[in-house]
Amino acid sequence: MNQMKKxxxxxxxxxxxxxxxxxxxxxxxxxIAIVSPKPQTTRNRITGVVNRPEGQLVLLDTPGLHRAHNxxxxxxxxTVRHSVADVDGVFLLVEPVAKIGEPEQELIARIKALGAxxxxxxxxxxxxxxxxxxxxMAAYGQAHAWRAILPISAKTKxxxxxxxxxxxxxxxxxxxxxxxxxxxxxxxxQVCAEILRxxxxxxxxKEVPHGTAVELTxxxxxxxxxxxxxxATIYCEKExxxxxxxxxxxxxxxxxxxxxxEDMERFMGAKVFLETWVKVKENWRASLSQxxxxxxxxx
Length: 299
Hints:
This protein is an alpha/beta fold and 299 residues long.
């Protein structure tokens, strides 16, 4: 008799830069979410699919919960709040600090209000002594009745097998939501645009990369040689930022484009011809219509 397979959705939530996308990529086994050392790297909710013999685990990688300063921030915080509803479980990802911050307090309150089964996942345990974790576990243990508290390192993959097994326990019996060969529901075009934005975050300093958006104006495959032709426009908020992105004699834009093209080729498994331009849209993050034009809209 065949064992009934499971399938369900788990949201990964937390403050900015806690490692949600790194964890998603590690669990999926493939890079589907961009990562950088800068907070607010993730802007959209990203779906990752983990297929196992016992069933299918669907992960929702969400933006970091932070105080909104503009329309883009408002969109991101709403995305996080909605991601705790109508799921089979929630992973609250926190750093190994024995103090519950404001973002964590808000997320715990929302988890309680919605009654979602929740696991506290303490990330970056490779950066602290094991005995220091006891205080973290005690502080969060008093704040909520967690299904489990699990220390992990998304970077070194410590504890990820246990976390996956724990996630599968939370899932109901049911048919798969995605084909078995699928790792994300993001279109290839969207992933490539995000890869380019990731390189902006990695190469540029201070506020400049946070004010950028990427639009792919062309994404097609040439019939004669299977090369993917990709044309992208990078939008920034100030003329001075445009100069920084392009760099002296175009050096910075060339560096960003080269790094992005190499990653795109790895993701697509094909040669990519990438052309990039830079344009200014002043204060686009403060405009709801501009934010929506760049694809940041509630579904």
